[in-house]
Amino acid sequence: ADTSVPDFPGDFVRIPEDKDDDDAWADGPLVEAMLAREGRGVPLFVDDATLISPGVMSVVYPLMDGRGKIYVKSRPKKLGREIVAGPDFYIVAAHNPGVPGAILSEALSSRFTTQLQVGTDYDLARSQGVNGKAVTVAKNLETNRRKGQVSWSPQMRELLAFKRHEEKFDLDYALSALIAQAPEGDDRDVVQRAITVTFAKKLEALASGGQV
User: Fold this and answer.
1) pTM of the model
2) Which of 57, 114, 131, 155 could form a disulfide with 120 if both were Cys (CB 3.0 to 4.6 A apart)?
3) Sign of dihedral through CA atoms 16, 17, 18, 23?
4) Which tens digit of pLDDT belongs to each residue from 31-42?
């Protein structure tokens, strides 16, 4: 959220007094990606793009609508202010739908000609050592989420946390912690029932005692 326009093309940095002022300029990741590999370019990946201000993200619009170049007026003249993207340059971005403050504007969305929905790879979770029954619970809940029967299901982050909890504490702790991660209400009740059926354990959400 604190990303600013210069974070993309570059900005001036502090230098020793005996250096030339032009040496104070540092290209940002956008310009570096456009000019990498002797001008052929490489992809630029922007993570959590929808948390960046739309006004800041607009700096990449010329590169995504066919123009293929940007003009960086603050860049020293001897380095060149018009930057032309190499043929192998393109922009990839990730965003998490539903995250507070995340806005995928129509102007930004329309510039991504290929859009993919990326879900949790449950087979990968098993290969990472996550309890197989926990993976089964998560996978079944994800199926129900896609059908609109619940609004939450454990994803890779929750499953890896489950693994750490089970290793450090025990299975009951890990299951109770997983229940507590589910939103309060119907979703948590569904998760609790799924765990009861799969593990033959009736557990409550992880909680402290009456006094802390």
Assistant:
1) 0.73
2) 155
3) positive
4) 999 999 999 999
